[in-house]
């Protein structure tokens, strides 16, 4: 090689001009080779796309070109930086999204729930509510009455804002958290939802809301930002400014592989304490039924009152609860106009309900009739017929060839003949007809065909007023009580099986239903001054009857007068904090249990977050203190039980205790005289000597003796 190089140099010296050209050519070739090698090396060193291969559930993507990112701005760099830091914890995750899709303003049911969700003075109404009676037995002293277990009250109603267009469009609501989209843009993941009514108007500055997690991912932290202010930890309530308010809710999650990401959602709420509001669960819609039911009322400040409503120009009426029931519709478009006036202010909302008559549908029967053998001569049944969702009015019932008349509504009561009886239902509508026949065989019993004392088939009945024959004394005119009843088969009996008669010296007293669960029905009655007699009669489907009788003497104290004391304890034993308070508290005529409990907590240095008010829909969401009172020491055996039932344990705040602390099933519940009522604190009036326990649960009540999920999954021990 050396000799070859020397020979080349000799020739180059002989040909110097050619040598310069050759040298330049060699430099070009050498430079090109270096460049090609560098490009190849750089390409091989580029990492793969960090999100390629990532699970779709890990990605939080924008849902459209108009999405708002929760990113730092010039005006608010410091307030947004904390939230941005959450997003940068893992570079494999996309930026936080802020979805503002809006849903039409009808009731949000079911959450929850729920029942129909709780009406509150923030402009929301439940439930859902869940026609709201406030905290129920299984729920922390108050979501929708009798749901026995929804922790959340979803807003109903759709208040109209000034500036809505001339077509009277209703404001949209949105209770949903952000959703992922797949590569085709289709939504396939929803992480959380809230009770915030997007675009709604409220008349109180103190605004409370709840968040429901819709995923099993671990929640690291939940934060909210109000009007581009400071990012704060979610506490369940915010202080609104007058006019428009922007609320950004952000939840940070952790996947099983440790990946962290944040999902956020922005809402708009208007605070106007002098705004005249129309609250309703109506929305523009198309229905297949020829009638519609809805609720509507007006609100100005703290006052709620009736409004006027018309259907196609004709006035329609509501009952005392502002319910418009079974309003008949004409085929095609129907216009419902709601008008409210108060103190020189007026408000109007207009809704279009389109009735589309079902075509070519068969008639179907809804009845409890069946081929069966019975042992009582008196036999009751109900029967209805439908074509699609429309009720068929032209229905007739026949017993052994004789046409029957209903005793009331769609209910029938007949006397059977001994042996086989043929009961035939016949219905026709729009040229179609349907007929069905049942055979009911009556087997006569030689003994015990009536209801005498000691009848083993009589309903089993208990009442919170105590044993039948009790004599009671009270200074309160208002009396709340529960009736629990089953037939001898163990089936729960409801309000249709129970008749309450209460009368005093001045005549019959008014008794109303509070809430009904299968086998557990609650009532409220207004007593007369002096002696009152209450008779509770329970009758099962086989005409067996049980009767309870009470004598109640009422001295009827004046409003505001002290009428005795109750004992109240506030217990956080499930989280290792023991009994926070335990003391006797004075009670006053005209004060509900909700007002008494809040007064007692505030007098002991606690601040209270709740929705609704003392008279209706009260929901105790959280108590807080300036001092740290939550230790977080969950008993080990309870922690094991929580893990066995799929409850993840979250972080907590040492000076505050309420919904969703520690677990998704946490919240406050209440118990009176050993019983968890199926109605809220705003529906209960203390009696002298009552004992109330306000208890914190981590598992929807299963850990403190009252499973509120609708089942019977109590864990056999109370922590």
From TrEMBL:
**A single Pfam family, by name?**
DUF4430
Low complexity biased stretches: 76-91, 132-146
Q: Where is the composition biased (Basic residues)?
A: 169-178
Which InterPro entries does this UniProt record tie to the protein? Ig-like_fold (IPR013783), Transcobalamin-like_C (IPR027954)
Q: Where is the composition biased (Gly residues)?
A: 147-156
Q: Where is the composition biased (Polar residues)?
A: 106-127
Composition-biased stretches, type Basic and acidic residues, lie in: 157-168, 179-191
Where is the segment annotated Disordered?
72-195
Gene3D superfamilies membership = Immunoglobulins (2.60.40.10)
Q: Which domain of life is it from?
A: Bacteria
Q: Provide the Transcobalamin-like C-terminal domain boundaries.
A: 659-696
> What is the protein name for this chain?
DUF4430 domain-containing protein
Q: What organism is this sequence from?
A: Faecalicatena fissicatena
């Amino acid at each position: 090689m050396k000799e070859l190089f020397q020979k080349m140099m000799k020739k180059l010296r002989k040909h110097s001009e050619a040598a310069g050209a050759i040298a330049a050519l060699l430099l070009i070739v050498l430079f090109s080779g270096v460049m090609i090698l560098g490009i190849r090396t750089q390409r091989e060193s580029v990492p793969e796309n960090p999100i390629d291969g990532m699970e779709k559930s890990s990605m939080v993507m924008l849902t459209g070109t108009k999405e708002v990112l929760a990113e730092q701005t010039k005006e608010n760099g410091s307030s947004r930086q904390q939230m941005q830091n959450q997003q940068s914890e893992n570079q494999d995750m996309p930026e936080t999204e802020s979805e503002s899709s809006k849903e039409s303003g009808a009731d949000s049911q079911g959450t929850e729930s729920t029942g129909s969700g709780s009406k509150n003075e923030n402009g929301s109404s439940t439930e859902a509510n869940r026609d709201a009676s406030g905290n129920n037995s299984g729920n922390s002293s108050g979501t929708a009455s009798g749901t026995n277990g929804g922790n959340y009250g979803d807003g109903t109603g759709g208040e109209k804002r000034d500036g809505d267009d001339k077509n009277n469009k209703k404001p949209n609501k949105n209770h949903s958290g952000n959703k992922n989209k797949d590569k085709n843009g289709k939504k396939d993941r929803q992480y959380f939802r809230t009770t915030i009514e997007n675009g709604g108007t409220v008349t109180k500055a103190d605004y409370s809301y709840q968040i429901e997690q819709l995923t099993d991912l671990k929640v690291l932290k939940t934060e909210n930002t109000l009007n581009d202010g400071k990012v704060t930890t979610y506490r369940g309530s915010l202080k609104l400014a007058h006019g428009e308010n922007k609320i950004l809710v952000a939840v940070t999650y952790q996947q099983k592989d440790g990946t962290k990401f944040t999902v956020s959602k922005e809402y708009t709420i208007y605070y106007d304490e002098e705004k005249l509001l129309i609250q309703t669960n109506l929305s523009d819609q198309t229905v297949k039924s020829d009638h519609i039911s809805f609720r509507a009322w007006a609100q100005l400040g703290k006052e709620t009152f009736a409004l006027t409503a018309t259907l196609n120009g004709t006035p329609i009426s509501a009952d005392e609860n502002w319910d418009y029931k079974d309003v008949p519709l004409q085929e095609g478009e129907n216009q419902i106009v709601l008008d409210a006036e108060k103190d020189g202010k007026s408000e109007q909302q207009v809704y279009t309900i389109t009735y589309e008559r079902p075509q070519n549908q068969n008639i179907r029967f809804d009845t409890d009739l069946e081929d069966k053998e019975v042992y009582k001569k008196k036999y009751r049944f109900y029967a209805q017929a439908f074509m699609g969702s429309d009720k068929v009015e032209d229905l007739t019932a026949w017993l052994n060839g004789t046409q029957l008349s209903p005793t009331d509504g769609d209910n029938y009561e007949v006397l059977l003949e001994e042996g086989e009886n043929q009961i035939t239902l016949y219905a026709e509508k729009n040229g179609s007809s349907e007929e069905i026949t049942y055979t009911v065989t009556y087997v006569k019993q030689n003994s015990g065909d009536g209801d005498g004392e000691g009848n083993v088939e009589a309903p089993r009945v208990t009442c919170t007023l105590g044993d039948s024959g009790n004599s009671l004394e009270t200074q309160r005119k208002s009396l709340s009580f529960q009736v629990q009843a089953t037939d001898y088969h163990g089936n729960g009996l409801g309000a249709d099986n129970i008749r309450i008669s209460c009368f005093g010296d001045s005549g019959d007293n008014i008794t109303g239903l509070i809430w009904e669960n299968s086998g557990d029905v609650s009532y409220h009655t207004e007593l007369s001054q002096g002696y009152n007699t209450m008779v509770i009669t329970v009758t099962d489907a086989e005409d067996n009857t049980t009767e309870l009788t009470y004598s109640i003497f009422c001295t009827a104290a004046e409003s505001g007068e002290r009428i005795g004391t109750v004992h109240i304890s506030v217990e956080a034993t499930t989280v290792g904090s023991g009994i926070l308070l335990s003391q006797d508290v004075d009670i006053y005529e005209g004060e509900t249990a909700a007002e008494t409990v809040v007064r007692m907590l505030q007098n002991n240095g606690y601040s209270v977050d709740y929705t609704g008010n003392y008279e209706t829909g009260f929901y105790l969401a959280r108590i807080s203190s300036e001092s740290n009172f939550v230790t977080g020491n969950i008993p080990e055996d309870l922690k094991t039980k929580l893990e066995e039932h799929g409850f993840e344990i979250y972080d907590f705040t040492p000076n505050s205790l309420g919904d969703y602390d520690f677990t998704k099933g946490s919240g406050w519940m209440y118990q009176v005289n050993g019983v968890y009522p199926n109605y809220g604190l705003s529906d209960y009036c203390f009696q002298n000597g009552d004992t109330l326990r306000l208890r914190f649960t981590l598992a929807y009540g299963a850990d403190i003796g009252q499973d509120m999920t609708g089942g019977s999954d109590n864990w056999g021990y109370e922590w």
